Amino acid sequence: IIDVAVKYGYNSADSFSRAFHSFHGILPSEVKSENTQLKAYPRMTFQLSIQGGCEMKYRIVEKGPFKIVGFKKRVPIIFEGVNPEIEKMAELLTPEVINQLKAISNVEPEGIISASTNFSEGRMEEKGELDHYIGVATSSNDTASFDVLEVDASTWAVFESIGPFPEALQNVWGRIYSEWFPSSGYEVAEGPEILWNESPDIGNPKYRSEIWIPVKKKDY
What is the number of structural domains in the chain? Predict the structure, then answer.
């Protein structure tokens, strides 16, 4: 801790620890604890408008291998608004299917989730397609006749979104790539991007979601 304290202009490890605790709500020694949530303020950049400087809540999670079990479909990449192909997929989640899937949901994020992987080139230009899954995360081998995506052990950056759906969620997703990754010391790793929603009530103005993205430390 003393090396970091000196690097950022603090006179002692104690003064750095107090400032760190005041900002993040935890001590530096607690950062590596499981599911610890930190705050990031990406650096401001000046273009036609000011970006960054706004709080982004995230945590880093280490997870072993698991499966995503449910329905899979190749869908077009759409950044804004509702994706009609994904909306059609959601109709497959009848009460009976939901109960069947939730019975094997035993891996965080628990409950119904969606995941996107195998993106076409041109993703950042909103071109091409991706493989989309709707289902649950599980370690169970009881996958019935559902589609299965095997997910390797990985480090995950987990971001929180609170606000009108889907606008708040899409805003956070965009900021992750435009602001957080350039200043975080991490880069995207191989694996699916996962979305967890707290409830089906998308009309809630404080709708809460989590975005899980596999990451790895940058090689400098």
Answer: 2
Paired with 186 in beta bridges are 217
Same domain membership, residue 69 and residue 24: no
Buried/exposed code over 103-127 (b: 16+ C-beta within 10 A; e: otherwise): ebbebbbeebbbbbbeeeeeeeeee
**pLDDT tens string 91-135:** 999 999 999 999 999 999 999 999 999 998 887 778 899 999 999
Task: Report the sign of the C-alpha dihedral through residues 181, 39, 174, 198, in that order.
Answer: positive
Q: Is the pTM of this model over 0.90?
A: no
- Look up the CATH number of the domain holding residue 116: 3.20.80.10
Q: CA-CA distance, 195 to 118, in Å (whole number)?
A: 16
CB within 8 A of 107, min separation 6: which ones?
63, 66, 137, 138, 139
- Do residues 122 and 183 share a domain? yes
Domain assignment of residue 57, yes or no: no
Written as six digits, the tokens of 16 are 């750095």
The answer to whether 209 touches 198, Cβ cutoff 8 Å, is yes
* 178 inside domain: yes
Look up the domain containing 11 and give its range.
1-32
- The answer to whether position 48 is within a domain reads no
AA letter at 155: T
pLDDT in tens, 140-152: 999 989 999 999 9
